[in-house]
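Sat 14:20. Reprocessing the chain from the morning session after the first attempt stalled halfway. Input below, unchanged.
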Amino acid sequence: MTIDPMKAFEIPADMRKFAEQSVEQARKAFDGFMSAANKAVSDIEGRTNAARTGARDVSERAVSFAQRNIASSFDFAQKLVHAKTPEDVLKLQQEYIQEQMRVLNEQAKELGEAATKATRETVKPQ
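Finished this time. C-alpha cells:
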C-alpha cells in the first residue's frame, strides 16, 4: 500500500479551523497589548512633559526671586553708603530685615504653590 505523501500531511478541517481561530485570537490579544503599550507610552510622555514644564516654571521663579533678592541687597548696600549716623544704619538694617522676611515668606509660599501645581499636573489622569 502506497501512501500519497501529500495526503499524509493533510490537516483535517476541524484542526485547520481551530488553528485559524487560535491565530486570530492571538492577533487580537497582541493588538490589544500593543494598543495598551502605546497608550502607556503616550501617558508617560504626557506626564514627562507636564513634569518638565512644572520644573521649568519653578526654576524660572526661583531664578527670578534670586535676582530680585540680590537687587534688593544692592539697594540696601547703596542706602547704607549714604547713611549719616549709626542710628540711620540701624534703622535701614531693621527695615531691610523686615522687608526681606516678608518677601522671603511670599516667595516660599509662591514656590510651594508652583511646586504643588506642577506635581498635580504630573500625576493627574491623562
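The two ends are 69 Å apart (CA to CA).
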